[in-house]
Design goal:
Blueprint lengths: L2 E8 L4 E9 L17 E7 L7 H10 L9 E10 L3 H9 L4 E9 L4 E8 L4 E8 L6 E10 L2 E9 L6 H4 L4 H14 L6 E6 L9 H9 L18 E6 L4 E7 L11 E7 L11
Parallel strand pairs: 1-5, 3-4, 9-10
Antiparallel strand pairs: 1-2, 3-13, 4-6, 5-6, 7-8, 8-9, 10-11, 12-13
Helix pairs in contact: 4-5
Length: 281
């Protein structure tokens, strides 16, 4: 299975499932030195600002090595605020490269259906949508798995609540994101390696429950607190749990690529590739 759309949208009263059709940093807030060895995998998380971001240019910069100094062998893009109307273009971008694509519709704002997406140079397996507790708006993560150097990694693109009603905010809006992070962690394998990227809306900083919970679970996450959004806010993260012998370094890109968020990239090297290669390696 190469391309897909997993649909899930919340109406005012209920979650409506849309058919799955598949054909075909603590966080990534870190600024660290990227490894000298060629990267096996580049993972980028990016909020596309309701589809306004220039994804083709970002992909070209990844492929040319302009972003990280050298092209990675494989690429995974974890996208938030992709829009349903742009799915054909996502599919075209992926199809031209033989990549996999998954789109999960989440919320119709009256003008467009926004959602989370995964675009991967590795075949994407076990594609699914993960509904999170609703606060102000529906929140649904896109999830799948890839095989790299013979090891399966789950990959997740998510977008947590940005704000809640004033009566809840008075009690602490970070609790809403904490509940969503807890639900996401319950839906993921407890001991398997994987990467979760997204816009976590951690307005209140590293003491937020969501930030703490995910950093504790994903203990290979590079350290750092580089802003990804205006006002010096660190909202976008890559949380990383890697197999033994793998290493991740991460940084926030200077270019916003026409979005209001900066992409965050993790470059992952495999220092011990004695593992038997898996399908597609």
């Amino acid at each position: 299975m190469r391309f897909g759309v997993v649909g899930s949208a919340l109406s005012a009263l209920s979650l409506l499932a849309v058919a799955l059709v598949v054909a075909g940093c603590v966080t990534a807030r870190a600024v660290t030195t990227l490894p000298a060895a060629p990267a096996r995998l580049a993972v980028v998380t990016w909020n596309m600002n309701a589809g306004r971001g220039d994804l083709p240019r970002l992909v070209r910069d990844l492929e040319s090595g302009r972003v990280a100094g050298a092209p990675a062998q494989d690429v995974v893009l974890l996208l938030q605020e992709a829009v349903h109307a742009e799915v054909p273009r996502l599919r075209e971008l992926a199809d031209a490269r033989g990549w996999s694509m998954l789109f999960v519709p989440v919320h119709d704002d009256g003008e467009r259906m926004r959602g989370n997406a995964i675009v991967s140079s590795r075949p994407l397996h076990h594609a699914r949508a993960i509904p999170l507790p609703r606060e102000r708006q529906p929140r649904i993560a896109a999830a799948g798995a890839i095989v790299v150097a013979g090891r399966e990694l789950f990959v997740v693109s998510t977008h947590l609540e940005n704000r809640v009603g004033w009566w809840k905010a008075a009690l602490g809006s970070d609790d809403a994101r904490g509940r969503q992070a807890e639900a996401l962690l319950r839906a993921l394998p407890a001991d398997a390696p994987g990467i979760v990227g997204g816009d976590f809306n951690t307005w209140l900083g590293p003491d937020e429950p969501a930030w703490r919970l995910l950093a504790r679970r994903f203990d290979d996450t590079p350290a750092g607190r580089t802003p990804t959004f205006g006002g010096g806010l660190v909202l976008d993260h890559l949380f990383v749990d890697l197999p033994e012998g793998w290493h991740a370094s991460a940084r926030v890109l200077d270019d916003t690529y026409e979005s209001d968020h900066h992409p965050v990239i993790a470059m992952i090297t495999v220092t011990d590739e004695r593992t038997t290669l898996g399908p597609g390696d």
